[in-house]
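Name: DUF397 domain-containing protein
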Amino acid sequence: MITPMSTTNTARNLDGHWIKSSRSNANQNCVEVRFDGDVVLIRDSKYLRDPANDPADQPIIAVPLAVWPEFLSAAVDRAACESAGIPQINRRGDGVTIHNGRDFLEFSRSEWEAFVGGIGVGEFAAA
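Structure predicted for DUF397 domain-containing protein:
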């Protein structure tokens, strides 16, 4: 399920593959991102690790490319997301939930820290 929300194309994933932060190790669950035209798709790698989950039902949040930089800034700086199409970021002691009002993605603290670390070195920046 994809609910429209922003995107940016980077040299790393113009081919449409899902990417994760280099700060995530190979066996770690993580925030995954895919640039797809004028949206950036976000999903949680944990979902597909459960064989009972149907890949067609995986929650995916789409962020409009035009507001992707604002979403990244909010992820790093803990700023409020105020533009239309940007998912809300709710922080709690043990992790983060992002949602667009319909789809919810839950990330542990270490998963989110790896994502934010990747943002900090430009891994998810718009080209």
